[in-house]
Amino acid sequence: MSLVNEQFEFTKDVIKLLTKAIELGFVVTLGEAHRPIEMQELYVKTGRSKTMNSMHGKRCALDLNFFYNGKLTYDIALLKPLGNYWESLSPKNRWGGNWKTFKDVPHFERNV
């Protein structure tokens, strides 16, 4: 599948994710989507990321801000149903809250 088609499938799943988040009572705002290589280098250097092969560089990742009961939250337990829903949409979808060693709760990606 071409990168454009992967980006399109990712975008369609993001629409489903946002719809589900609203159904679960979240207010959602956009965080970071595309990330230039220079920013990725800085994130790796400062420990905010563990890889130079970020899906943000391929426009197949999105960080979201979740508000629940009027407060910003990145509570893994609260967001886990949403993360699991994301991963159920495609075997290529990964949620940062389910990563083994580095938790990135607001991060949703399509592995391409």
Following the backbone from N to C, one meets helices and strands in this order, namely: HEHEEHEE
CATH topology: Muramoyl-pentapeptide Carboxypeptidase, domain 2
Low-confidence stretches: none
Assembly form of the protein: single chain
Structural class: alpha+beta
Rg of Cα set: 14 Å
CATH architecture: 2-Layer Sandwich
Task: Briefly characterize the structure.
With 112 residues, the protein is of the alpha+beta class. Helix content is 40%, strand content 20%.
Structure description:
The protein has 112 residues and is α+β, with helices and mostly antiparallel strands. The chain has one domain (3-110): Muramoyl-pentapeptide Carboxypeptidase, domain 2 (2-Layer Sandwich). It is built from 3 helices and 5 strands; from the N terminus they run αβαββαββ. Strands 1, 2, 3, 4 and 5 form a 5-stranded antiparallel sheet that branches. A hairpin with a 2-residue loop joins strand 2 (61-68) and strand 3. The longest helix has 21 residues, at 3-23. The termini are close together.
